[in-house]
Each structure stands twice: as structure tokens, then as C-alpha cells.
Amino acid sequence: MNHPQAQTIRIIFVVATGTAALIASGLYYYFYFLKKGKTQPQLTQKTGSTEVIINKETSSPLFNKSEPVNYPPPHRGLLNDRDPVMVIERKSVGSRRKNEELFAEELYTAGRKKDSYPEGKLSPKESRDPSKRGIQLKNWGSATHRDFLANAKPQKKIYHNTLKIDELEKDASDDKIFRKTLDHIGQVLLNKSKSIRKIFRRLDYKYYGYLTVEAFRKVLDEPELGLQELTTEEKDTIVNYCNCADGKIDYKEFFTTFFEQTIKKQLRTQGKGTLKQIFVIVRHGSRFPLHPIPLNSGWSSNEQFWKLYGGKLTPRGINQHYKLGLRLGTEYLQELRLLPDSHILPEMLHVYTSNTDRTIFSVSSLLDGMFPYVSQSFVVEDEPERQSRNYQGIRIHIATVSKKNTPVLHGYKNNPKFDHFKKKAFDNASLFKEVAKDPEYIALLDKLWQMTNHECISPEKDIVKRFSSFGTLYHQIAIERALKMQLFANIKNLYLTPRDEEMIEILARESRHVTFCGNTPAEQQELGRAGSGLLPFAIIDSFSKRINNLNTQEPPRKKIVIFSAHDFTIMALLSHFGFRNWALPNFSAYVILELHYIKGKYYVVLRYNSDPARIKKPSDLRDYIIPTNGQCINMEDSQKGLMEYEEFERILMETKKSFISEEDWYQDAHSINQN
User: Fold this and answer.
1) 72-76, 96-100, 296-300 — most confident range
2) Sign of the C-alpha dihedral, residues 268, 272, 273, 275?
3) Taking a C-beta distance cutoff of 8 angstroms, is the pair 659, 417 a contact?
4) Whether residue 205 has pLDDT greater than 90
5) Is 642 a domain residue?
6) 602: which strand partners?
7) Position 521 in a domain
8) How confident is the model at residue 116 (pLDDT cuts 50, 70, 90)?
9) Claim to verify: residue 259 and residue 283 sit in the same structural domain
10) Are residues 279 and 389 in the same domain?
11) pLDDT band for position 168 (50/70/90)?
12) CA dihedral sign, ordered 286, 292, 295, 300
């Protein structure tokens, strides 16, 4: 039939028939896949007593973007029955049966490589059996990657290439789920004790330097730790993860296992900060007098007593430095986070002390307060160090014992040039000559002689020299006050009055200022330079090495440097800086220099605490800027603020010509004999 209308009807019929066929086909496939989404074959994995569903085909609502996955408390890491399923899919290359065969073969291959689940291995032929399509993987903890789950996305297609066999083959050390569990354990321990080293010290309470596997395994079973949901197998895995083949877990293994990631996260959230290093010069604590005081009834007259204990650190001195260490630790470790509680902490500390017992024991007490759970060791200067690479203690470097004093902390000792300028300064000092004519001071001098019979004020000496020795009496007052003794107790029942002490302090301050500052800026430059010895260069050297470390990441990377010294050390340094009329340093007084990095430049902050018993916190101290161009000014009149490091270095090394070697210092010290 060739009629035009018949041809039109034929076309309409064909189109209608095709449309109906397409609709029917679409409905068929729609209901087919809807049904299959509910009855898809599953893979199961067991971790300990926990079963994990591994789906070949994804229709899981757990990965809805609008509903983020919430990980179950109390621990985060090993899977439990509330964890979301893992989706492992393959891109379709043919029939569904062929896809299942390839999938099973891939898992089987991975299983042969790991050899970790012999009871659950399936060959590709076995996978063709529909009754065995649910493959059971046993003891494959590294296959469960929570980060993989968290990043999974809902897919419209049933088959999609998301399975990564190399991810499944990772060891437990690379497994992020396992890592999160370890971090959680570390965080629980840290919340309980606030200090990682405190945790380790409590576990190693007998100071062997390691934890036994058995002891630490018992800790994981403690109810307070909140790890009840971990199986015995999982806890054993955690202990074995510490790499303790010898059955011993040292601090480095303990830290890197449980705390390294936590500490890094804390440092990132708190910011890097500007403080890069602190350099502390601290005076020792309260000591015994150096020599007997004949009429002072508070002290023994036994000659052997003074041979044994003269100048030794007192229990009060130990306590002073322990408290100072607590304050420095609070300020710089807890608040400013200068040092992490890391296994590399010993590499970030440098401690140096003179070779007297009062400075050694003082700095040891300070470190006890600042690092209460870190052990200490002692090494003499120039002696080869014999500690192991994993040693976790703080090394206290003691100045060489081959000679009594060294120019690092005692530039004023065995220095003929210093003695020459000191004698010249006292000869020209006017105050001692003035008070030698003052009846009030003369009466005080006689009274003190009757109370003490101290040789420094013997009537046989010149009266001006007797007054210039009042610094020794001022020290005696500080010693006895620290020990809560009656000042200058004597059998004659004579008492020191506030006015007496005031006059003693005036002359003592003058005596110390003349010793290190002289009477003119020229004398101060000579006395300060000679008296401070190699200490200024030690500061510059430490800062410059730290800056180089920050710029190149090359060692050393010291963040805290502590020098334990004497009051004369501090006074000589302040004089060399160009300060006059500073407060006399009491026991445990300190100078602290901070190195900061701010907006591309390095800066130095200088602080001085003459009496830590009165001013507790370092942050409560004012900043001092050292005078430029060789000037000398009253310390309290100096400007406040930060100094650019380059300017600070230029002043000390170029303007003030600080010594850079012991040979340099020695030649200068003896150059006075050539004049």
C-alpha cells in the first residue's frame, strides 16, 4: 500500500513500538538493580573478634556527604562492630561473574604475598562457587584503612575502580587506623600525667632506662586507661609495634610509638612562635661562708668543718634552684612550648658549669625542677662522652678540673690586667675615702669588728681598705638570711639594725661597681672586657649556631643553654654590656637572653633578675637594650625593647672587642706586664 496516509501510519506504529520497548527495558533494569542492591554478595574481614563487611557493590548510605561519618568513642583506630563498612570495588570488564572471579583472584594474590590468612584463602576456581563468594579474610588488620573510608564517595555506577592492593599490603606501621589507635592511647596517658617523661618514669620507677614488654602489656589492661574495647590480640599487637626485639622498650621507642604525632599536632595548633633559643647565666644558690667568723656564734669554730664545708652549697641553695627550675619550666616549656617532650630533647639542651660543687649542684637542682622526669649525667670538659646514642639524660658539662678557673666563667681570675685596673679604680674611688671620715660609718665599723672579728675588717688594715671590703660582710648577711639565722649572732649580744644593714649595702654596692665598672667609662671597658672573659663570645656563638640551624637544618639545634656560674660572672657580663649601677645579684640571680625570629629578622631580648625570691616570673622582668658605640649608662636608664641580633653581635664583637679564644684572652691578660 503506497497511499501517503498508510505510509504515515506505518511510521507512527514503528516509533510507538520502539518507545514501548525502551520503557519496558528501562523498567526491567531499574527493578533488577534495585533488587540486587539489597542482596549483593559480601566480603567479611575479622580483626580480632570484630567482623567487617567489605562490599563489592556500593549502595551504602554511610557515605552520604550530607551525613559525615562519626567515629565511635572511646578509642579511635581498630575496628569494632560500629565502624562503617569498607567499600572495595572493581571497574566492570564484562559479566558480573567474570568481575567476581577477577576480584577473588586479586585478593588471593594479595593473600599469598602476605600469607596472613591461610584459613580464608580462596583460589580463582573456588570463587566460581556462589556459596564461596563471601570471602573471609582473617588477621588482616592493615586492610582496614579508616582514612580510605572517610574519603570514600557515593557512586552512581555499581562498579568503580577503588580497590588498591598496595594499600592492603601495607604493614601495621603504615596503617593509619592502627596509628590513630596508638595516638589515642598516648593521648589518654598524656591526659592522665601531663608529661610523657612522667609517664615513662612512673612505669620505669626503678630507673633501669627501659620498660619490659610484660610490664607495659599490663598497663594496657588497666581499667583507667579506657581500652576495654580492644581485644587481647590487638593489645599484643600494640606492644609488639614498639620494635622491642630484645623485650625492652626504651624512651625513644615509647615516644615515637604513642606520642610523636600527638606532639606534632599540638605544635601545629599552637603555632611555631617567635622564640628560638634562650641563654641563661645563673648564679649558684645559697652557700656556706668560705672562711670562719671567729665571734659569730651561729657557725662552728672547728677548723675541719671549714675544710669540708667552706663554700659548699646549702640545702637552702638546692631548694632555691629547684624552685627557679619550676618557674623557668612553667614559662618556657609549658607556656611558650620552647621544647617538646621528645626523645631528641637531650640534643636541644646544653648545660655548662664551673667546677665548684655549689655551681654543679645548683644547676642539677635547677634541672630537677625544670625537667623533673629527665635523668642527668656529668662529663668534664674535654673528656670524651661515652653515653649511648639513645641516651635520654641531660649532660652537665663541667669546666676542666685540671685548673681551678677558666676564662669562660672566670675571666677576672688569674688576670694581671684585670687586677691592675681594679687596683687603679679602688685607689681613685672617692666614697670609701669619704666614709672614712664619717663618724656614723666609723662607729659601724667598730661595732661590726666587735660582733664578728672578721679578718676583712681587721683594725690592722688601712681604714679605706676596711670599708672597701664590706662586700664580704654583705655576702655574709645574704648567707645567714637565706638560712633564717640571726644576723651576726654573737656572745656579746650586739644586734644589727636596719640602718646598719643599709650602710653595709651602700658600701658593698660601691665595692662591686668599682671592681667591674671602675670610675670612668674607659675603666669600665677594660674591666668589663677582661672580667667577662669568653662568656660574651659563648653567647654569640650559641645564637649564631642556632640561626644557622634554623636556616640550613644542620646541627647543632640547641634551644636552651644554661651556664651555672657566680655573682662575679654576672656582674662582669653586665659591665661588659655597658651597664652601670646594676642591682647586686642575690643567690640564684640570673641573666637571660632570648633569641626571637620576627618577620624575617632575628632579635635579642635581654632580662636580668637580681633576686628571684622577689620577682618570680621571667615575663615580669623588664627588657634592656645594651648601649651602642661603647657607651656606659645606668642600667635602669637603658631603653626597653628588642635588639636586632646583627646589631647585638656587632656591639659585642666589634665595638667591645670580646675575646674569641682562650689564647686571645690570655695574651691580653698578660699584656699589662709589657707596659
Assistant:
1) 296-300
2) positive
3) no
4) no
5) yes
6) 597
7) no
8) very low
9) no
10) yes
11) very low
12) positive
Same domain, 507 and 550: no
State how far the Cα of 594 lies from the Cα of 543, in Å rounded to an integer. 9
CA distances 528 to 232, 417, 580, Å, are 68, 11, 11
Indicate the SS3 state at residue 133. Answer: coil
Contact 390, 646 (CB under 8 A): no
pLDDT higher at 93 or 276: 276
Position 90 pLDDT exceeds 50: no
Do 535 and 379 contact (CB within 8 A), yes or no?
no
CB atoms closer than 10 angstroms to residue 170: 15
The mean pLDDT value for 15-33 works out to 67
- C-alpha to C-alpha distance for 119 and 122, rounded to whole angstroms: 9
**Interatomic CA distance for residues 89 and 55, integer angstroms:** 7
CA-nearest of 434, 576, 573 to 507 is 434
Name the residue among 446, 409, 403 with its Cα closest to residue 568. Answer: 409
Q: Which of 158, 120, 172, 136 is closest to 54 using CA atoms?
A: 136
CA dist 152 and 467 (Å) reads 85
User: What is the β-pairing status of strands 42-47 and 136-138?
Assistant: parallel
**Residues 562, 667 share a domain:** yes
Which residues, listed in sequence order, are joined to residue 349 by a DSSP beta bridge?
Answer: 560
Boundary residue ending a domain (479, 512, 545): 512
Q: In this predicted structure, what is the pLDDT of residue 20?
A: 73
Higher-confidence residue of 583 and 130: namely 583
- Asked whether residue 597 is assigned to any structural domain, the reply reads yes
Residue 312 cell numbers, joined? 659548699
Buried b (16+ CB within 10 A) or exposed e, 487-499: bbbbeeeeebeee
User: Measuring CA to CA, which residue among 549, 599, 578 is closest to residue 648?
Assistant: 578
Cα 179 to Cα 113, 144, 235, 573: the distances in Å are 23, 12, 13, 50
148 contacts 167 by C-beta, under 8 angstroms = yes
Beta sheet of 394-398, edge-to-edge order: 376-380, 394-398, 349-353, 560-565, 275-283, 590-598, 601-609, 643-644
Same domain, 277 and 264: no
**560: helix, strand or coil:** strand
Q: Give the range with max mean pLDDT: 80-94, 221-235, 388-402, 409-423.
A: 409-423
Q: Tell me whether the omega of the peptide bond preceding residue 340 falls within 30 degrees of 0, making it cis.
A: no
Q: Scanning the structure block, which residue is given the C-alpha cell 646589631?
A: 647
Please state the rounded mean pLDDT for residues 635-644: 92
The boundaries of the domain holding residue 487 are 430-512
Q: Is the dihedral of CA 197, 201, 207, 213 positive or negative?
A: negative
Question: Can you tell me the distance from the alpha carbon of 545 to that of 624, in angstroms, rounded to the nearest whole number?
Answer: 23
Least confidently predicted of 65-79, 233-247, 281-295, 636-650: 65-79
- End residue of a domain, out of 482, 512, 542: 512
Q: Are residues 400 and 538 in the same domain?
A: yes
C-alpha closest to that of 532 among 437, 623, 652: 652
Closest CA to 657 of 533, 502, 547, 499: 533
Are 594 and 278 a contacting pair, CB within 8 Å? Answer: yes
Backbone angles phi, psi at 489, to 5 degrees: -60, 135
Residue 231: give its domain's CATH number: 1.10.238.10
In a domain, 532, yes or no: yes
Determine the Cα–Cα distance for residues 44 and 135; give it in Å rounded to an integer: 6
CA–CA distance, 372 with 200 (Å, rounded to integer): 12
Structural contact between residues 52 and 144, judged by C-beta atoms closer than 8 angstroms: yes
